[in-house]
Design brief:
single chain; mainly alpha; two-stranded antiparallel ribbon; globular
Amino acid sequence: MHQYTIMPHTELRVVCLILQALAILITILRLGYRLRTRMFWVEDIWAAAALVCGAASLIAGWKSFYTDGGHSAVICFWVYGFAFPSTIWAVRQSILFSVARIFWSARSLRLTAIAIALGFLVLYGALVTQKAWQYGHNLDWYHHPDKNGRVHAYLTHPMIIFELITDCVSDAIIVSLALHLLWGINLPATERIMILAALSTCIIVTIVSVFRAVCQLMHFRGILKIATDLELAVSLVTCNLLVATTYIYRIVMRRRQSISESKSDSDIVFSQEVMAATLHQSATLDRLTTVDLTGYSGYSQPATGAEL
């Protein structure tokens, strides 16, 4: 019975580990692509910050899972406790500036994006401050590890609800801004669907945030760690989805264009070959031997006018 309850958690943790590693790899590929194409911008700086914080969360989370207690467990908890929200909010900033990059030439829209980014920084600062106070004002949890040697300090219910509200509101602002901006300009239908699909994944992050908040409120510690790891992985993937879909879209359109051009070239070559064959046949017929049968009277007399 004990193995039955542990195995699903272990399998879910392995799945979350794979998703986190994949998300980090995608982020590295995205940053390398932007540097190679000289398109590195503010959104990529935030993506790099999310990469660093996500890697720190991944290392601290798995270190605490296999720790035997002591100071290492406390350090891992502090690192994970602050690296996790830093990753989430860096991802939001990256997505925000990915949208703002499209409309950066418009002054009013640019100022709106900057104001939203500053608002996000204020919310992030408030969340980090309340976490630091909750974890630091009473350090008794240092000396009360669980049976596995891990320590944990829980947030109060008002703090959890405030964090959930900020998550939902910030994601709604990003999606609403993207919908408002994209609806106000003329874009090809394919590109419109592509960008909206990428930005709509913020809804998935919100759903995972709600699930994580429920686990925090109910003190489901085993599921809570899985929920936070899943939210981290989904957020990093979402951060790079817009760049990835844009890159894939360009490749597909470039390939379609090359295929259409190759077909046109094939038609031209075929027409040229048909024309060359016709001209060659006409020239061959012109070079055939013709015999003038004028004066031919039968077998007794030979032909009198052979022309080569």
